[in-house]
UniProtKB/TrEMBL annotation:
Family label: Belongs to the DnaB/DnaD family.
Species whose genome carries this gene: Levilactobacillus tangyuanensis
Alphabetized InterPro entries for the sequence: DnaB/C_C (IPR006343), WHD_DnaB (IPR058660)
Pfam families: DnaB_2, WHD_DnaB
Region described as Disordered: 386-434
Protein name: Replication initiation and membrane attachment family protein
Sequence ranges assigned to domain DnaB/C C-terminal in this UniProt record: 308-383
Segments traversing the membrane: none
Domain Replicative helicase loading/DNA remodeling protein DnaB N-terminal winged helix stretches: 12-170
Basic residues: compositionally biased ranges: 390-399
Length: 457
């Protein structure tokens, strides 16, 4: 089914399910951390779904539209933002031609986990700015304070409860079977390692610097995200890491790391010579096998951000900060290989001739391609062709829509300007009165008589 708000109708049914327990802290996290990222409409939709009376029974979308004061397009936009943030899972089913949706709500991440998530933290930083971001970190992750004159005398579990060692070594069947049915814990999306990046080489380079490699523990995912997005090699990566380490504390600053890379990427010299033919190797509209092969070859060997920059620079533009965040977001979600992302970028900027990447449009295309399991260049090109065919389809005529158009002509156009052969010319002069007609007849008679006699009065 097409992933579009057009499939929704006010009468379309839905039910709501809860997969997690929500606490007071969950609502605080939703408002303080998620809302700046997803927007107030999406946060409001989450609340509306949660507080619906008898939410497990079928309702129509007209109920949501009335509660939130939104139209279907804006309701759909709010829904996909919840999905992208991991707060909502949407499933659809069709029975006897009737479509219905199931909306599963997920609890927001704990603040600590939120700030550890690259995607969410980058989006929040861009939305609220660095100063307020640091304020939120401090407010949402309070550190326990223990005074110097206090002694921790808290008892542990084994000091209070008697535990049979035999039961621990051979757990009861009721425990093991129930554990198998437990859902997996919700974690941040992982970026798998790719063979063209050598972490061992990176470690060897950093070993000869002042950087404490122990401070980089837990940053493998972030490093892979930046490498995949920008195509950064091991030497440059080591340099960026060095610029993100505080010399006073020797602590690695992940946010500074992202800012350094984004700032350096904005320089024109960052586009590698090998990727410059990205736009030259292809025509404005990809036609023919040779053009497609040239495009796929470049798209397969170029990092998405670099591919984007090559197209923008050829057209005289530049990559915006928002576009960098969009690309990093798509890379980190690990939905598609780089070649598919690059073809998506090419389609939006070149085929559709758009000046910049639009997040809502990219999200719509990405959702559609993800549902269609697009994981290769060939599949991506097929989807692009399908999208182009849909765009070229003519709109329904007025007659097909049941509307009759009545054409009217001005008075002057209803009669021919010159007489048609074999017909009487139309007299355009005003009609004469009976007295005027009599005088005219008398004058004509005199003229005829004078003509016959050759006399004049």
């Amino acid at each position: 089914m097409e992933d579009s708000w057009h499939q929704l109708q006010p009468k379309t049914g839905f039910v709501v399910r809860l997969t997690d327990r929500l606490t007071d802290e969950s609502w605080q996290t939703l408002t303080q951390l998620y809302q700046p990222v997803i927007g107030p409409s999406a946060a409001g939709l989450f609340s509306a779904l949660f507080w619906l009376p008898k939410r497990s029974t079928y309702k129509r979308h007209a109920t949501l539209l009335a509660l939130m004061g939104l139209d279907l397009a804006h309701l759909y936009a709010a829904r996909i933002r919840l999905e992208a943030a991991g707060l909502l899972t949407t499933t659809v089913k069709t029975n006897d031609g009737l479509t219905s949706f199931v909306y599963e709500l997920h609890a927001p991440l704990l603040p600590v986990e939120f700030f550890k998530d690259d995607l969410l933290s980058v989006q929040l930083l861009g939305a609220v700015g660095e100063t307020f971001y640091q304020t939120l970190v401090t407010a949402c992750t309070p550190q326990p304070v223990v005074a110097q004159d206090e002694q921790d005398i808290t008892k542990n579990f084994l000091e209070v409860f008697h535990v049979d060692g035999q039961e621990l070594s051979d757990l009861p069947t009721a425990i093991t079977t129930s554990r198998e049915r437990l859902p997996t814990a919700k974690t941040a999306p992982k970026v798998t390692s790719v063979p063209d990046f050598d972490f061992k080489l990176l470690g060897d380079i950093l070993a000869h610097s002042f950087v404490d490699t122990q401070a980089l523990r837990g940053q493998r995912q972030l490093i892979m995200t930046e490498h995949t997005t920008y195509g950064i090699d091991e030497v440059a990566m080591a340099r960026y890491i060095g610029e993100a380490v505080d010399l006073a504390t020797n602590q690695f600053d992940a946010e500074q790391f992202k800012r350094v890379i984004a700032k350096n990427f904005g320089r024109p010299t960052q586009v590698a010579a090998a990727t410059a033919p990205a736009a030259n190797a292809t025509s404005a509209n990809v036609k023919g096998n040779s053009a497609e092969q040239a495009l796929v070859k470049v798209a397969s060997t170029t990092a998405p951000a670099v591919f984007l920059q090559a197209i923008k620079q050829k057209n005289g533009g530049f990559v915006t900060d928002g576009e960098q965040r969009i690309i990093r977001d798509l890379v980190s979600r690990q939905l598609f290989p780089s070649v598919v992302l690059n073809l998506m970028i090419y389609h939006v900027l070149v085929d559709e001739d758009r000046p910049t990447l639009n997040k809502n449009l990219l999200d719509t295309i990405a959702n559609d391609w993800s549902k269609a399991n697009v994981n290769s260049a060939a599949a991506a090109i097929d989807k692009i062709r399908e999208r182009q065919r849909t765009a070229r389809q003519p709109r329904r005529s007025s007659k097909q829509r049941g509307v009759t158009v009545k054409e009217t002509l001005p008075e002057w156009a209803k009669k021919p300007s010159t007489p048609v052969k074999g017909t009487k010319p139309v007299d355009q002069a005003p009609k004469l009165s009976a007295e005027q007609q009599a005088k005219l007849a008398e004058r004509i008679a005199k003229l005829k008589d004078r003509s016959n006699t050759g006399k004049e009065d």
